[in-house]
Amino acid sequence: MKRIQSELFAPYRFLGVVTGDVAPSIRSTFVAKKSALSVLCPIDNVIMQYNGKKLRAIGMSEPLSDKVSAVASSSTSVFAAHGTNITSLAFCRDIKDSIDLGAKIKIMTLIGTQLIAVDISSGIHVIDTSEGGLQMSLLMEGSDDFEITAICHPSTYLNKIVVGSSTGRMKIINFRTGKVIHEFQRSFDSRITIIEQTTALDVVVVGLENGEVMLFNVKMDKIITSFRHDAKITNVAFRDDGESTMVTADKNGTMAVWDLEKQELIGKITGIHSDEINCLYFVPGEPIMLSASLDNSLRLWIFDSADGMPRELVRLEGHSKPCASIKFVGKDHVLSAGKDGSIRKYDVSSLTMRQKLGTVGQGVKLNKEVQNVAEMAFGWQREAAWNNVFCRQVNDTKITTWQTRNNTSGAFTLEHDRFKKKVDFIDANATALCVSPCGNFVFIGYSTGHIDQFNAQSGRHVHSFTASTTVKKSKKSKNPRKGPTKTNGDIHNDTPAADSPITSLSVDQRGKELMSTDAQGHILFWSLSTKAINAKMFKKDVRLGICAPCPSNSLVALVAIAENGKESVILVDTVCHRVARAFETVGNKVNAMTFSSDGKWLLVADNDSYIRVFDVATSQLIDVLLFSKPCISMSYNETGQYLATVHEGERAVYTWANKVLFVAHINIRAHPADYLPSWSMISTEEGGTCDIDDDEDDLTTLMDQDIKAMKELQIDENLVTFSGLPSSRWANLPDLALIKERNKPTDAVKKIKQAPFFLSASATLDGFEFETENIGDEMDGDSRYITSKRNLLELESSFTTLLRNAKTRDHLLDAFKTLQNMSLSAIDFQIRTLNPKTIPIFFRMLLEVLKTKTNFELVQAYAATATKIHRTIMWNASEGASEHEELTEVLEEMAQVQMESWNEMENLFVENMAVVQWIKNALL
Question: Are 858 and 820 in contact (CB under 8 A)?
Fold first, then answer.
C-alpha cells in the first residue's frame, strides 16, 4: 500500500503479512561450508527473507519504486521485477543495479548467469548477470496468438527453455540465439498454468487450468501418464530423496500426494491452506517440503509417516483475509481482528513475535461461516484474572471473549436469552460494545435498542437498562439462590433503553456513569449504581454514530450525521454533560477515530483515504495523513510512541512513529480546515512510495541536525545557558588526577622469565635482526619522575601560546572554543601546563565567557580545576608582582559576575521548588 510520512508521523513497519500475491523464490546459500535455505517472499514493494529451517524473518530489502511482480535468486544476489524495471539486490538487502525493460514483467527465472524475463506482451528478455551488473543480451518480441503462461528449463538442455501458452501449445526456444527450436504437435485442451522438471531426464510435468496434471516426455513428444484435480493446477513438486512421490496443488488450497510408481493417489490435504497455493518446494535430498499460499501463510511439511502423507512441521501465518479492527493492548503489543474470524497479537518492536489467540466460532459448527469482527473492547485491569478482550461480530448478537495474558479464547460467549427464545429478535445484532475501567463488567448495545450489562468473569447477565428505570435502593433478598440460574437475563419485562438502534457506548474513567447514543440523536447518561438516567442530551435532525473516549480526560468524540449526509465530530464532556468542541470538516464518511495517549490530539479517518489530526485545545487542523486506501480502524499505544492503522482490503497492520517523541524539534502549525495533501504535491525523492521499515531513514540525519542546532541556541541573552555537552566531558575534570591514581594497577609489571618462542624482529638493510631492549638506559623510578616533572615545567603548549598572544575579547572566546573541543584528558593537560604569567589570562578568558551567560557549567568546571591545580601559585604569589595584582582583579570581577548569574538561577530554583511543593500538598 502506498503511504507517505506527514509532519507528525513517519512510517515505521508493517505487521502480519507473511507472503504476498507473488510466488516466493527459494535460495540456497553456503555459510561456513554449510548449506542454508532461505525463502524470499515479495510483499508489496519489499522482499522479506525468512530462514528456511524455522521460517523466522531474518532480513528485508530496501523499498523499491513499485510493487514487485516477480522474483528470482542466486546464492549471492536477488533479482526483483517491479514495474518495468528489474533490480539486483546484493544479499537481499541493498540495491546493486537496475535495468529498465520498457514493459511490465510477469514471469522470471534464473538459469545459470542468464536471467529470463517474460513481460505481459509475452516478450522474452534475456539479461546477463555474469559481470556483476545487468546487461541486456537478447530480446524476443511476443505475439498475440501465443501468450506465454509458463516457463521451464529442462535438465541437460543447454540454453533451452520450454514455454507454455494459454491455448495449450508448447515450444522449445534457444534463449542464446532467440530461435524456436521445436514446436510440439500435441496441443492440450486447456490453458497451461505450470511446467516443472521431474526427477527423470527428458520428462516434465504440465499442469492445466482444467485440473489435469500430465507427465510429458519432451524428447518423444508423448504423454506418459496423467492425473486429475477438481480445480486449476497452480504448482507441482517432486521428492528427490529416493521416493517416487509427486505433490500437486490447486487454486482451492488442496494438496494431493501421488505415487508415481503405482500411478495412484496416496491422499489429499484439505482445509489447511484456504487459498491458492503458489509455491511447492522440496528441500534437495530431504523429505521436507515448503508450501506458500495466497492465504498469507508459509508451512513446512515432513514426510515421515508410514502412509506416505506429510505432517505439518512449522507454520508461519497471518490473517488470510483483510483486517477489520485493531487495538493496542500494551506498550508494544497490538491486537488485530480479521475478516477470517481470527484474533492475532503482534509485537511492534519485533517482526518475529506473533501469536494467534484463536478463531471466532471455531469448533462450534464446522460448516458455519466465520463471522467478521466489527469491534474490539479491551480492559487491562483484570488481564491476569479472567477474560479482558471482547469482540463484536457483524450481524450477530454473541460477544466472544478472549484473554491476552494466556493468548487464548474464552470459555463462554455473552448473549442475552431474549435473542435465543424470541422470534421477534431473529434479525437483531450487537451494534455497540465497551468495558468498564475496573474490567469487571461488559456493556453491549443492540440494534433493537436494548443495553445489557454482563459480568466479565462469569459471563452472567447483570442488568438490562430501560428508559423507565427510577432511582430506587434495592434490598437484599432474604432467600438466597439455591443453585445456578439456567437463564441469562429476564425475557418477560424486557423494555428497550431506546427506540432506535444503539450506536455507541462509553463508560467514564471513574466507572460511575455509562453514556449511550442512538440513531435518533439521543445521548443518555446512566448511573451504574442506581441504573437510572442522570442526564439527557438531544441533537435534533442528527443521527449519532461511533464514539471514541479519551484515555486521559472526560471527553468523548462522537460522529454526528446530518439529514443531508454530512458528517461532523463533536466532543462531549461527560462530567458537565455538554458539547465541548465541534469539528465540521472531517470528510464524507468517518470510518474510525482515536485520541492520542495524552488527549491533546484527535485523529479522524474518513472514507477518502485521509486521516486528519486535530488539536483539541485549539480546535485546529495540524496534520493530514494520505494513503492509497481508506483507513477503517486505528489505535494509539499508551505511551504515545506508535499509531497503528488498518486499511480497506489490506491484511497488514501498519505502524507509524510519532515524530514528536523521536525528533528534537517539530514545527506544529495550524492548517486551513480544507487542507488536503495529494500525491502530486509529494515528489518521489521525498518518499512518495511506500517506506516500510527503512533502517537508513533520512530522519536520523535531520534529527542530528536539529539536536546540534538546539544545543547552539541561546533563547535569550539574559538567561544562563548550558553548553549541552554530556556530563562526561566536564563533571569529572576537577577529580581527574584522583581518578587516574585510583585506576593505576596495584602490582608492578613483572619481567618474563623465559623468552617467547617467536622473537620480535625488525627489518634492516642487511636483512632482519632481533630487537633488543635498551637495558642500560633504564632509570629508576625517582629519576624518571624528576625528569618528567622538569619537562612539564619547561613545556609551553599550543593552548598556552594562544592565551599569551590573545589581545582582544574575541581572541579569548576563540581560545575557549579550542579548549572546549578537546578531550577530558587534554583539557586537564592544558590547564596543568599553565605558567604563572598565563594563569591570569586563563581566568580572564573564563570571565569573558561568563559574561556571555553561555557554557555556564564548563566555566565552573574549568575554574575549579585551575584553582585546585595551581592553588600553591595563587596563594604564595608576592604582593608586588604584576601577575598577582592582575589575578586578584580578575578573580574579584569574576566572583561578582558569577554571583549575579547564580542569583538568577537560584531564584528560579526556589520558585520551582515552591510550586512543586504546593502541588504536592494541594487537595486537587
Answer: yes
